[in-house]
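**Protein fold record**
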Amino acid sequence: MSFTPDSSSLQLPLADLAGKISGDVLLPGTAAYAAAATPWNVAVAVSPVAVVAVADATDVVTAVRFADTHDLDVIVQSTGHGALAHTRPSLLVHTGRLDEVTIDPATRRARVGAGVRWQRVLDAAAEHGLGALAGSAPHVGVVGYLTGGGLSPVARTFGFGSDLVTAFDVVTGDGEPRRATATENAALFWALRGGKGALGVVTAVEFELLDVDRIYGGCLYFDGADADRVLSAWKTWSAGLPEQASTSIAIMRLPAMPAVPPPLAGRCTVAVRYAWVGDPADGERAIDPIRGLAPAIFGGLGVMPFTALGMIHADPVDPMPVHERSVLLRELPDAAVRTLLALTGPAADCPQVFVELRLLGGALAREPRESSAVCHREAAYSLLTIGIAAPPIVEATAGHAAAVMDAVQPWSGGISAPNFGSTTDPVLVALKYDMAALARLATLTASYDPRARMAASHPVRAAAGLVQSRARS
């Protein structure tokens, strides 16, 4: 269901808003509006009454207060990778122009605006011999990634990206600009690390950098016919890895397109991703058991600059319609491997483009210096399905993904994480947090956004209400 925008009744107020801000107010029917409102995941219909392309934090304050005055919800977008469908009349605050990047090599810290993508931070940090805890897709936005936890290809060594955050500048849903740190607005600081956009519009974030300028890693691709052997061996091998190693495995069915390497196009393949922080010779020895499993049809491993972190997963860059489902696994016994192979292996009728397992544990399992809303740190693996959400296969994609999630229920309990499988379904949102964290998040949204202007707060409040209702029954 999508909302058809009608800004005619707000024509004069929107014109007045345009005169009060340094940025621009973009209206439906214009190319600029379409470009700003369309998210990376084009399967999500985003149709605000207007887009406010903010130029600074003051613009954000003005936009949020305008939305409150005119009974509009506030949705926030930079890249739109985690876009959510929304049906109420809304104002989209586009943060793409908040492009500050400041690196302090003495303190090994960065300050980054909400419109910045990770690759720019990686490149800026590298000029000082430092790294940044980016995710597998450095073309995503820094803020959306960090407010959802942030799972890097080197996460087992350094923890969640949000664990390294030291401060946020944010305009909360009540239209007030605030700074949140471990000592200033501490409860807000807790909620912003894991609560996604439920509390407000983040305008800038500060975080620690890594004293790393290179790693050993890459990806080995095997033919799908070897999926049973490779996945079973990866499961046993990964369980014994030290924290210097992070790894994931994906069963892939990439379409035959110009951007897809010919050895991987139009067939089932298995990708083993690997990153080692430390002596490359040690990293090479640690991956040896995987190298000899079967002939690699593509890819390779070696020393790489930290700026090339995104090459390990080689996630797609261009916008596309995608359907995601995700769950965290408490364990991965042989029965779980057999179940996944039956549903997603080379012999299965599987419509997913990616079915990925990531090894968790290591630094991810430890509580950070300052507690946060990121939950389920005890999980051992994450499971993610990504398929095309476009006719004629969208229903098959969604149905199959649901079947996979149901099949692994004995080893997961359904728990999941904020950044994967974006959804407004309160049943699924409730699984991203434990009961105490969800209740605290909902309470804080009510405190900082009493009129529920932030669209992202609605599913959090609904999920908390659902859990409370179940507890009473």
Summary: The chain has a mean pLDDT of 96. The CA atoms of residues 351 and 392 lie 11 Å apart.
